[in-house]
Amino acid sequence: MFNLPPEISLHNISESAAHLGEGPEILLRIPENLRRTLNKNAKVCASHSTGCELRFRLKSPSFTIHIQACHVGGLPHGGGLAQILFGDFSYTYFPIVEGENHITCTAPDHHNLRDVSNHPCFHPDLVRILLPTHASISGIQLKGDFTSPQSGDLPSRRALHYGSSITQGTGATSSRESWAGICALHLNADLINLGFGGGCHCEPEMTDYLCARNDFDFAVLELGVNMINLDHELAEKNLQNFIRKFSAAHSDKPIFFISPFPCHDDIIHQSQGRAQEFRELIASEVTSLHTPNAHFIDGKQALNPQTGLTVDLTHPSPAGMIQIGTYISSEIKKHLL
């Protein structure tokens, strides 16, 4: 079901494996041997196609894509919308439902796109198929005439994001409209999205995996909100270990540690609960590193709760995603050359 033409480039896809260890083969964002060691939520969300893309140049006037989804989660937000772009330009959104999904795309006038796009993040001749946020993809077929992406089609730098469902994009229209996607666009970076709804626990196995990766230029790490209900001692130990080991492993790269965004815990405890404790802990840990590459960003400043939250008072609305992505990227720009 993944017998794609060799010209198709895959992004943010690690491998395929049996769905949750027992179903049909699906795409994974991390290796299966790592997925099996993580908490329950991360195990599920690793199978979601958040930030996963198919990339190619189109030779024929049009192409057709067939997507098979074996599971659509993320309720009440649904599976999310897939999106087709030509470079930075959106062509269309289309919903992914469980079962078969089909869409045909006719190429736009590339010459006009090039005229508008003087300094593109992605070249307008590059076709990008963004898979949805909360679907498990068990099959993809493409019909058309393709060539591989060319040198210069992609941004010159890559951003690694790790975090909660907010980083994954719960509440956003599509992967590109998540705060991480908006942040990457503002920074002219190619996004590696490793957000795991309810599953950002900074386990030693995940810490070691991220420390070993070297396919990015800077890292943006949204920590704490998924650990509010964990054992206090374990949560703080995991956080401290993650911050110290990741900073040491990537001392040559800018790293941005983001504390929890405004959330339900702040409202219940009048900003004196576990979310605030994590903000203080993360700030203290990053400061104690005394390394110029590690930076703390207070997530509480990134979002206006009155205008940017959904009704659960934790997940951002599409407007909130814009607020966060714009704020975080402006803070990162202060430290990137």
**Structure classification:** alpha/beta
Number of DSSP-assigned strands:
16
Largest sheet: 6 strands, antiparallel
Distance between the termini: 43 Å
So what's the overall shape?
globular
Please state the second-level CATH architecture of the largest domain.
Answer: 3-Layer(aba) Sandwich
Radius of gyration: 19 Å
Low-confidence stretches: none
Count, helices: 11
Average pLDDT number: 94
- Count of separate structural domains: 2
Question: How are helices and strands ordered from N to C?
Answer: EEEHHEEEEEHEEEEHHEHEHEHHEHH
CATH class of the largest domain: Alpha Beta
Amount of beta strand: 25-35%
- The third-level CATH topology of the largest domain is Rossmann fold
Helix fraction, binned, reads 25-40%
User: What's the CATH H-level superfamily name of the largest domain?
Assistant: SGNH hydrolase
How would you sum up this structure, described in words?
With 337 residues, the chain is an alpha/beta fold. The N and C termini lie far apart (43 Å). It is globular and about 55 Å long. The relative contact order is 0.13. It has two domains: 9-147, Sandwich (Jelly Rolls), CATH 2.60.120.260; 157-333, Rossmann fold. Helix 5 packs parallel to helix 11 (318-333), helix 6 (204-212) runs parallel beside helix 7 (232-249) and helix 7 runs parallel beside helix 9 (274-289). The strands form four sheets. Strands 1, 4, 6, 7, 9 and 11 form a six-stranded antiparallel sheet that branches. The protein has a five-stranded parallel sheet with strand order 13-12-14-15-16, sandwiched between helices. It has a three-stranded antiparallel sheet with strand order 8-5-10, with no helix packed on it. The chain contains eleven helices and 16 strands. 29% of the residues lie in helices and 27% in strands.
